[in-house]
């Protein structure tokens, strides 16, 4: 067996991020020669098109995860960068694969489950349309359009429609655990707030954000999530199952109400009380944290139908065990 066969190449765009680093470690453990594309300390930079093509040509798998983080305030500048960073890097990977003499057989790219509609009546699967309107749904649809555009013969393409990833280093997890430890880990209640334009649509065909921008869900809004270990294992599973392509919901089978989420976090850190946060309390706090209340107020109820139908087994299907494992570490 040649060295190239013994150590197939895996290319990760955005390999220095939280999820990219975890996938990189897993692929190295699987015997891959992992190369990265990024802004610094990477094997190629996004502006080096020839370098990107060289890495992609002959690779066994390409994973695209680059893009500005969305746990920020949606200022005009941040909104543009969130969209631009995803479309630009996906276009660069698409062009490199299209021009490769030996195109990779698999391209796994980031996406989001955030474009599914606000749901309190049941889980959304990959068979349901991504019909929500506004900023993040527009970003997600444009991102996937770049991934699935045109014909790439011989390259299987998968969009990872990711929910919130829970892990000790996960930004959202750190925020929620901090609230729980401080005694502020009660349920978050949606309600009226002053109108603003931060959730308005974006891109070539911007869609209007839902009106009104709140639902009095009384803390029943669903929280879809996935443990970081299951996320990595799902990527390995998708790599090894050639029959799977297209969008894949990266979510645990158990989406929980917000009230249960916060109760589970309080129990895990040993905090008996948790002050609830109506939206008029939540909004000023999120402004100070430079984040958006949509993170915890939207009912994002998502089910992993494609993974389930393909036979994937979750190590952490239930939130309580997942949180206890993370906090215990």
Task: Explain this structure.
Helix content is 39%, strand content 15%. The model has no long low-confidence stretch (mean pLDDT 94). The protein has one domain (3-328): Rossmann fold (3-Layer(aba) Sandwich), CATH 3.40.50.720. The strands form four sheets. It has a seven-stranded parallel β-sheet with strand order 3-2-1-4-5-6-11, sandwiched between helices. A two-stranded parallel sheet has the order 7-10. The chain has 329 residues and is of the alpha/beta class. It starts with a helix and ends with a helix. 45% of the residues are buried.
Mean pLDDT comes to 94
**Radius of gyration, CA atoms, in whole angstroms:** 20 Å
Helix- and strand-based class? alpha/beta
Write down the domain tally.
1
N- and C-termini, Cα separation: 40 Å
CATH names the topology as Rossmann fold
How does the major sheet shape up?
7 strands, parallel
- CATH homologous superfamily heading: NAD(P)-binding Rossmann-like Domain
**Beta fraction of the residues?**
15-25%
Order of strands, main sheet, comes to 3-2-1-4-5-6-11
Secondary-structure element string: HEHEEHEHEHEEHEEEHEEHEHHHH
DSSP summary, beta strand count: 13
| pLDDT < 50 runs, ≥5 residues | none
């Amino acid at each position: 067996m040649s060295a190239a066969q013994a150590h197939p190449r895996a290319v990760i765009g955005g390999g220095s991020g939280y999820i990219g680093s975890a996938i990189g470690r897993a692929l190295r453990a699987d015997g891959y020669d992992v190369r990265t594309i990024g802004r610094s300390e990477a094997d190629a930079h996004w502006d080096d098109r020839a370098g990107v093509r060289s890495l992609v040509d002959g690779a066994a798998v390409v994973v695209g995860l680059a893009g500005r983080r969305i746990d920020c305030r949606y200022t005009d500048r941040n909104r543009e960068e969130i969209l631009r960073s995803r479309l630009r890097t996906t276009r660069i990977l698409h062009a490199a694969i299209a021009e490769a003499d030996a195109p990779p057989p698999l391209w796994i790219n980031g996406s989001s489950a955030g474009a599914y509609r606000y749901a309190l009546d049941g889980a959304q699967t990959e068979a349901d349309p991504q019909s929500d309107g506004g900023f993040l749904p527009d970003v997600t649809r444009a991102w996937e359009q770049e991934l699935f555009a045109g014909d790439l013969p011989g390259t299987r393409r998968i969009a990872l429609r990711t929910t919130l990833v829970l892990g000790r280093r996960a930004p959202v997890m750190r925020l929620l655990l901090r609230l729980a430890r401080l005694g502020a880990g009660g349920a978050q209640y949606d309600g009226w707030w002053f109108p603003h334009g931060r959730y308005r649509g974006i891109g070539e065909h911007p869609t209007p954000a839902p009106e009104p921008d709140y639902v009095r869900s009384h803390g029943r809004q669903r929280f879809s999530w996935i443990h970081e270990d299951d996320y990595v294992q799902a990527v390995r599973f998708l790599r090894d199952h050639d029959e799977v392509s297209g969008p894949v919901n990266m979510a645990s089978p158990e989406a929980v109400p917000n009230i249960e989420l916060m109760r589970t976090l309080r129990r895990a850190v040993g905090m008996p009380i948790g002050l609830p946060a109506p939206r008029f309390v939540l909004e000023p706090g999120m402004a100070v944290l430079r984040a958006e209340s949509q993170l915890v107020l939207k009912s994002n109820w998502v089910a992993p139908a494609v993974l389930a139908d393909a036979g994937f087994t979750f190590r952490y299907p239930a939130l309580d065990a997942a949180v206890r494992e993370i906090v215990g570490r």
